[in-house]
Design brief:
The protein is mainly α. 79% of the residues lie in helices and 0% in strands. Helix 3 packs across helix 4 and helix 8 packs across helix 10. The longest helix is centred in the last third of the chain and has 35 residues.
Length: 272
């Protein structure tokens, strides 16, 4: 019975995955993600130049979207696109087609993890679309505090931090090795060369930011201090405190903008 139910679920997922409407919405989701990353890069550069205290994470990006002309409409499009992209990735996870790995569980785990990230970003966007506001940095600190309060909390939080750092390292690896090309129907000529440059620069920059975020979570686990776990906002601002930090943060900001442009291209050329 369970085998039959599983087969039925896979057929339903396959049908959903082949849905033209869902594929179009998934491309809208990539466009929404691109806009968020463009704004993240802009905010990172603004923080580096002004040394300001403004939020440079996803919630800061959502706040910037609401300031755009027609921002209310744009933020609702972002909400729909991100949730649709999350659903499409769930379909990939069910079908086990989210990666080129020979292992079925890896092919399912990778899109499942991405789905969680996009749906979480969609929830943040929904809050702003409904006229509210939120802070990803505060949410990260609260989540870290909750984990630390559990039995073996520091160990569990440490695992989360190491996992985040590993994801950041994978982004860097994916950029340097150009494995992101497997996600696209690569255009030829000058356009293809530009996409490769954007992909390499963008993935490396995003990887650095996520890696630093993971390190901060590990620091929170080791010191049993949730205030050290400040999410992407804290990760980017911590780069500014390094020697030549302003230059580093500007470079990461430019890289995030490159990743945003690459993701716009992916909205057009993604393999769905």
């Amino acid at each position: 019975m369970s085998t039959r139910a599983g087969s039925t679920a896979r057929r339903a997922a396959s049908s959903a995955g082949n849905s033209r409407a869902l594929q179009i919405l998934a491309r809208v989701g990539f466009g929404a993600s691109a806009l968020v990353h463009l704004l993240l890069g802009y905010l990172a550069i603004r923080v580096a130049v002004n040394q300001g205290g403004e939020s440079s994470d996803q919630s800061g990006a959502m706040a910037e979207i609401t300031k755009l002309p027609g921002g209310t409409i744009v933020i609702w499009v972002v909400v729909v696109g991100l949730f649709a992209l999350g659903l499409w990735l769930i379909v990939q996870a069910v079908l086990g087609i989210g990666s080129t790995s020979d292992k079925r569980w890896v092919r399912s785990l990778i899109p499942a993890g991405k789905a969680v990230a996009y749906i979480a970003l969609g929830v943040t966007a929904l809050t702003f679309a409904q006229g509210g506001s939120t802070s990803n940095s505060d949410s990260t600190q609260q989540a870290s505090a909750s984990i630390l309060s559990l039995p073996g909390g520091p160990f569990l939080l440490g695992i989360v931090g190491v996992g985040a750092a590993a994801i950041g390292g994978y982004f860097v690896y994916k950029g340097v090795t150009r494995k992101f090309e497997e996600d696209l129907r690569m255009p030829s000529g000058t356009t293809g060369k530009a996409v490769r440059v954007l992909g390499v620069v963008g993935y490396v920059a995003k990887g650095v930011a996520v890696f630093v975020m993971g390190v901060l979570i590990v620091v929170a686990a080791v010191t049993v201090d949730p205030s050290s776990s400040t999410g992407l906002d804290g990760a980017l601002k911590s780069l500014a405190s390094l020697p030549f930090g302003v230059v580093i943060l500007v470079a990461v900001g430019v890289g995030l903008i490159a990743y945003g442009v690459y993701t716009f291209v992916r909205a057009r050329f993604a393999r769905l």
